[in-house]
Write a sequence for this structure.
């Protein structure tokens, strides 16, 4: 049964060609179980209603394809941050910015500048804080700033998604950032970077060009995804940032983890679980692991290579191996 919130915006939704009830069903079917408790019902309905209101109010927002809107504007959360009613708070500021912008990319840049005027980078805790806490405190680490930027963009009808590298291969730690959908394709937009155009090479561009794996998150089931779990697809977008090689697993049944060294230990970039049998990786040296008792092998990939690895063939570890080698040194 439709609530007053959805009913009052039904006309606006008809104008932009989307049904509020269908959008709510879409959101619920792709939300984690923890978001579907009765306490969040009103929040999810408000999220849908305001997303449709922005789409109907901003002249260029209705040109965003329906599939892109449902996947990259409608979601009520970005990552593992607490679920809060962020959309009405952001819209008070982002909607006027979007309405005064001639196109989506200009609006994204202006909203990015607004975000940068409020928040700056500073390490916080391991668990993501909500975007409203980031707003009130004025600080956040990279993923929290990304959540803040994505929520700000989505509140103005701008499709966007989180991208990240699980672990750098040439230095310690990892990083997350925002990708913005435009009619000309996806462009990255870094938080706290103060750039003049989307796609401007960010501070981490050199590291990204040498990354082992870069992924983007889609809250939906997307064909060809590297992984799908919890209603979320992990998309391999490494080729948009770095020259890559292809690692292919020969057998059809073994789960194989691809590992690198980071913070003095082996860290998993991705696990290839059947039916996923190949992955695009940046050039580098990788430790593969599989089975129990655990088996391991070291492989070297240069950009342009295709390596077919057979887990059934014994491959003893070398006595000595340099894992974090530059692509030019391979």
């Amino acid at each position: 049964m439709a609530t007053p919130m959805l009913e009052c915006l039904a006309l606006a939704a008809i104008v932009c060609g989307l049904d509020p009830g269908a959008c709510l069903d879409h959101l619920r079917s792709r939300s984690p179980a923890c978001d579907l408790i009765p306490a969040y019902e009103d929040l999810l309905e408000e999220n849908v209603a305001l997303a449709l209101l922005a789409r109907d109010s901003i002249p260029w927002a209705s040109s965003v394809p329906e599939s892109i809107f449902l996947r990259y504007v409608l979601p009520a959360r970005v990552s593992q941050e607490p679920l809060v009613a962020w959309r009405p708070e952001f819209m008070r500021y982002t909607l006027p910015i979007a309405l005064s912008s001639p196109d989506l990319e200009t609006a994204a840049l202006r909203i990015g500048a607004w975000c940068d005027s409020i928040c700056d980078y500073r390490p916080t805790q391991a668990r993501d804080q909500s975007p409203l806490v980031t707003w009130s405190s004025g600080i956040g680490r990279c993923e929290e700033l990304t959540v803040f930027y994505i929520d700000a963009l989505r509140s103005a009808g701008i499709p966007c998604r989180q991208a990240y590298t699980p672990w750098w291969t040439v230095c310690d730690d990892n990083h997350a950032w925002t990708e913005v959908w435009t009619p000309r394709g996806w462009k990255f937009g870094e938080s706290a970077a103060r750039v003049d155009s989307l796609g401007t090479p960010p501070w981490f561009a050199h590291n990204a060009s040498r990354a082992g794996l870069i992924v983007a998150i889609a809250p939906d089931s997307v064909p060809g995804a590297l992984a799908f779990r919890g209603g979320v697809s992990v998309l391999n977008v490494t080729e948009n940032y770095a020259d890559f090689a292809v690692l292919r697993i020969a057998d059809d049944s073994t789960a194989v983890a691809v590992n690198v060294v980071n913070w003095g230990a082996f860290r998993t970039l991705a696990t290839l679980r059947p039916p996923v049998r190949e992955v695009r990786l940046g050039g580098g040296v990788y430790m593969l692991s599989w089975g129990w008792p655990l088996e391991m092998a070291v492989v070297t990939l240069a950009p342009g290579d295709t390596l077919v690895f057979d887990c059934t063939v014994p491959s003893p570890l070398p006595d000595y191996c340099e894992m974090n080698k530059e692509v030019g040194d391979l």
